[in-house]
Protein: 3-isopropylmalate dehydrogenase
Organism: Sphingomonas daechungensis
Amino acid sequence: MINIVVLPGDGIGPEVTAQAVACLTELSAERDLGLRFSEHDFGGVAIDRHGLPLPEATLEACRNADAVILGAVGGDKWNDAAERPEAGLLKLREELGLFANLRPARVLEALQDVSPLRPDISKGADILIVRELTSGIYFGERSSAHDAASDVCSYTREEIERIAHVAFRAAEHRRHKVTSVDKANVLATSKLWRETVTEVAKSYPGVELEHMYVDACAMVLITNPRRFDVILTENMFGDILSDELSVIGGSIGLLGSASVGSGGPGLFEPIHGSAPQIAGLNVANPAGAIASAVMMLEELGLGDSGRLLASALETTLLEGCRTSDLGGDASCSEFGEQVRENLRDCLSRSGAYRELFAMNRGLCA
């Protein structure tokens, strides 16, 4: 049995998560994957019910899980809370040791009409951002007074080394190029970052390394996204650049992500926010949540099943089924159901192939 903790969270989180879980449930039943799901309070809803965004019971369930699926957290409702919903997410990442965030983005030919970039610029773009997740300015010491405030950004060599290895290993399975993004002309942490990444690169002679300042990277992502393969960067830069990258494919609602560490359960979530203004309207795009489920299956060693779900998701988009963020009129639930319909077709074809293979093997025995 594979135990999956589900944290629907806030805003549109429960809606998109429900569609991803429904796809996984159907896939698990058809392929006997043994996925078992349990829901727990997290984020703003946990503040309302328990007084804090990450209750101990939720944290314990996550620690004991094989993987965690998250919807979204946050909203204006909790702006004045003693501890905001986002603080629960930072703590969860830290407690589970999730230091590497993987955010892939690919421009699908069928969606080039909704990309803000010209087709000759965006066509074929396929980028993986590897973002350091548990250090940097988001986790540094901070102070705030009436007329001054500060946030400390710090990194150790060890923290940089471990995330760099993740990026180089990923590049070995892609197009063998890493672009390390920093601000080494200004920041001491970036100077250490560049020095450390350069040293790690020596262990990967088959991977090309280039360094780029973050402002230049932000520009090139728009003017020549095909230049990139794997982008390696620190926490805040990765947060900003991955959101910029998300719109190149047409909508932030399309992209999933995986947060992984060293041996514990991974956390899988769409990169979009909670979008409280459309919560409950059944118009959110669940593609990012479903894409996150694909990444979860891959991380669990169920890559064959993940590829079936990925194929069903891409087929749905190629067929023109679109939610409102992509200029369509499909509801969140209608999009999810169409993915599941295409998944059933994929499962049927894969079953027929297995039967044919078994029959041919018997004839050749």
Remarks:
- The mean pLDDT is 93.
